[in-house]
Amino acid sequence: MQLTGKQKRYLRSEANTMTPIFSIGKGGATQEWVEEVKKALSKRELAKVNVQQTSEWSAKDVAKFIEDNSTMTVAQVIGKTIVLYEEAKDAKYVKYSLEVNKLAK
């Protein structure tokens, strides 16, 4: 999903107070790790990922890997933190996508 500037700003503001729920360390990103993040996003819609200093991957490398290997959208990469978004399929987990869809118009 390609996000507009308004949508990205909204998601960044919502993610501002969040703490990262996933980390990338020495092992780097794998397809299995991406699937775990995808499961978490199916119930949250928005999450932060932290790239540890010991990781050989940069945050931009991880963001590209995620976008290439999943349907998740990278809303922001800042420093060693990545903000990920994916619209929830189940209506009871919809929180951010209502506003994101409004901002698309």
TrEMBL record:
Pfam family, one: CRS1_YhbY
SUPFAM superfamilies with a match to the protein in the record: YhbY-like
Record has tRNA-binding as a keyword: no
Domain of life of the native organism: Bacteria
Domain CRM residues, every copy: 1-97
Keyword set, alphabetical order: RNA-binding
Family annotation (InterPro entries): RNA-binding_CRM, RNA-binding_domain, RNA-binding_YhbY, YhbY-like_sf
Protein name: Ribosome assembly RNA-binding protein YhbY
Gene name of this polypeptide: yhbY
